[in-house]
Amino acid sequence: MKLGRFIREGMVMAAALAASGCASIREHRGYIVDQTLTTSVQAGIDNKQSVEATLGHPSFASEYGEPTWYYVSDVTARKPFVRPRIRQASVLAIRFDAAGNVISANTTGMERVVFLTPNGDKTPTLGRERSFLEDLFGNIGQVGAAGPGGGPGGSGGPPGS
Asked: Which of 53, 45, 27, 34 has the alpha carbon at shortest distance from 92?
C-alpha cells in the first residue's frame, strides 16, 4: 500500500517538474518604464538637465539631425532553450531644440518593431572566396614587394634618397 502511494506521489512530483520546465521566462531589457515619470516630461517646461534628473541617462541619443534622446524598453518571453521573443516594446523619444529645451515626448510600441531574419550563418561580402590555405600562404613573397610608388625611381624610399 505504501509503495503504491509513494509511486503516485513520485509521478505527481515528476509531472510538476516537467510542467515547470515549459513555463515561459520573462525578462525586462533596457529602460524600465515608470509611467508617472515618463508622463511628467513636458514640452516647453523641461530641458536636458531636468529630463536626465527625472528619467536618467538615455538608452542612446541621436547623432545627426534634431537632438533626440531615446529610452528603449523590451519585455521578452522565452521557453527554455529557445530564442527569446519580444512581447512588449516601448520607445520614448524626447526631442530637444538647439537650446536644450524639450520640444516633444512621444512613445511608440510594438507597431514600430521590425523583425529581421538573418541571411543564413554567413555575412555576404564583396570580393572573392579564398580557401584556408590561400589565406595562410597567400602573402608569401608579397612582403617588401614593389607596390604603387614603392619601386625603383618611386617616392617610396627612405627620406633623403
From this structure: 34
